[in-house]
Design brief:
Blueprint (H helix, E strand, L loop, with lengths): L4 H23 L1 H7 L1 H10 L7 E5 L5 H10 L4 E6 L2 H13 L5 E5 L12 E7 L8 H11 E12 L6 H14 L17 H11 L1 E10 L2 E3 L2 H11 L1 H9 L2 H16 L2 E2 L2 E4 L2 E9 L1
Parallel strand pairs: 1-2, 1-4, 2-3, 4-5
Antiparallel strand pairs: 5-10, 6-10, 7-9, 8-9
Helix pairs in contact: 1-5, 1-10, 3-4, 6-8, 7-11
């Protein structure tokens, strides 16, 4: 399949973005695990991960889902943690090694061009990664290709932006400061697959049957504004790079806008910002 120069440049930019923010994901990996624990369990259940299976996690980041899957597949199974950024796979591999997981390996793989044989896996899981692919349809077809017939995929993406103020407060605050949308038009962002019907069609057209999409609430509970700011900025790929490039007064203006908005979600002694993820699952035809 031919790939034009603009698409190649877009993909390189996206890959570089995740490489640049990998240190933040390493620092906050345990927090990511805890906050997304319900999503992780839902993905493993929908993918029917069980003893002896071979499982691939795509866009693994710190490897949360794959590490959890390793307990289900047991010593007779295998889990491959993969990400397009080598810096991310190093984090995931180190976390698996610290846990003594002999059934886990890590590889650098692009979910739009998965360098794995056809039908090589019993299950594929991907938590909050598919929406950042430059070509969603191509990525979905690749997921289907590496699954055996009858194998299952389970994929999580963020729901509509209005249901995810934990992140949109930051994106909107940055956008107001820059006078432009964040991310810019044409760049796949966190809400690019937020339509449940569109997500279902994407997987069905890629070669999956029995596709179902459901909501999972992902509330972000923090002790104060500084905790929200630190974690969200560290994990939000494009925002982290934008903030690094701004002068101090620009960053402080963004902080002031965000602090005012976040205060509206104060709940007792802490702050509770809503979030919703769409979880989709299907069977490889």
């Amino acid at each position: 399949m031919a790939t034009d120069t603009n698409d190649i440049d877009l993909r390189r930019g996206l890959h570089g973005m995740w490489a640049a923010v990998a240190p933040g994901w390493a620092e906050h990996a345990d927090y990511v695990d805890a906050r997304s624990a319900d999503i992780t369990e839902r993905l493993l259940e929908l993918a029917a991960v069980a003893t002896g299976m071979r499982v691939l996690e795509l866009a693994c980041g710190p490897g949360s889902v794959g590490i959890a899957a390793s307990r289900r597949v047991g010593s007779d199974g295998e889990v491959v943690l993969s990400d397009v950024a080598p810096e991310m796979t190093e984090i995931a591999a180190a976390r698996a090694a610290r846990r003594g997981l002999a059934n886990v390996t890590a590889r650098v793989l692009d979910l739009e061009e998965i360098a794995e044989p056809d039908a090589g896996y019993d299950a594929v899981v991907c938590r909050e990664g598919l929406m950042f692919a430059a070509d969603h349809a191509r990525a979905a077809r690749e997921i289907a290709r590496v699954l055996r017939p009858g194998g299952r995929a389970a994929i999580a993406v963020w729901a509509e932006r209005e249901r995810n103020p934990w992140l949109t407060v930051l994106l909107d605050s940055v956008g107001e400061q820059l006078g432009a949308a964040v991310p810019p038009p044409g760049v796949p962002g966190p809400f690019s697959l937020s339509d449940a019907g569109g997500l279902e069609r994407l997987l069905s057209e890629a070669g999956f049957s029995d596709v179902a999409v459901s909501d999972v609430p992902v509330t972000m509970r923090v002790e104060d504004f500084d905790a929200w700011w630190t974690r969200t900025c560290a994990l939000a790929g494009p925002v982290s790079r934008i903030l690094d490039a701004l002068p101090e007064e620009g960053v402080e203006a963004i902080r002031a806008r965000a602090a005012e908005a976040v205060e509206g979600y104060r709940d007792g002694d802490g702050i509770e910002l809503p979030g919703v993820t769409l979880v989709a699952a299907g069977v490889r035809r």
